[in-house]
Specification:
Structural class: alpha+beta
Order of helices and strands: EHHHHHEEEE
CATH topology: Thiol Ester Dehydrase, Chain A
Shape: elongated
Radius of gyration: 17 Å
CATH superfamily: Hotdog Thioesterase
CATH architecture: Roll
Number of strands: 5
């Protein structure tokens, strides 16, 4: 079944190879990291104990990878709505640790659209970079629309 165009935040007719997904910027704070630790019950000291974390190769606390990935999901939800939750796949690599104070930019671009009689599969390249322009996340996402 092919979804009607008006059920998507982007009109399907407007989705083409090269379409840029909405970008978002987020500043990561230690409070964000602590709240995520509370929500997930992941209190690894590398995330929440600055004294411990300063003695590691990271030399300070770092954000949970899943916290950063949640923002990738946010851009995909903005682009594809409920379809992102229903039929998606994310294949990414975390490249650089995220520290309190980092300003992250998340975005993506449609790499390809494959259509057949039953479904349309949208393939996207997704990214996150920090304020220095360093890649934090690189990878791809797939969603059936």
């Amino acid at each position: 079944m092919i979804m009607k165009e008006d059920n998507l935040p982007f009109k399907l007719a407007g989705l083409t190879k090269g379409t840029v997904l909405p970008e978002i910027k987020r500043t990561i704070s230690q409070e964000n990291i602590n709240l995520f630790a509370e929500a997930t019950r992941d209190f690894n000291p590398i995330h929440v104990d600055d004294n411990f974390a300063r003695k590691t190769p990271f030399q300070g606390t770092i954000a949970h990878g899943m916290l950063v990935l949640a923002y990738v999901s946010q851009i995909m939800t903005a682009a594809f709505g409920r379809k992102w939750f229903d039929s998606s796949q994310l294949d990414v690599r975390l490249k650089t640790p995220v520290r309190p104070g980092d300003i992250l930019t998340f975005g993506g671009i449609i790499r390809d659209i494959n259509m057949n009689q039953e479904e349309t599969l949208v393939l996207c390249d997704v990214f996150c970079r920090n304020q220095k322009g360093e890649p934090v996340i690189i990878g791809s996402a797939r969603v059936k629309v």
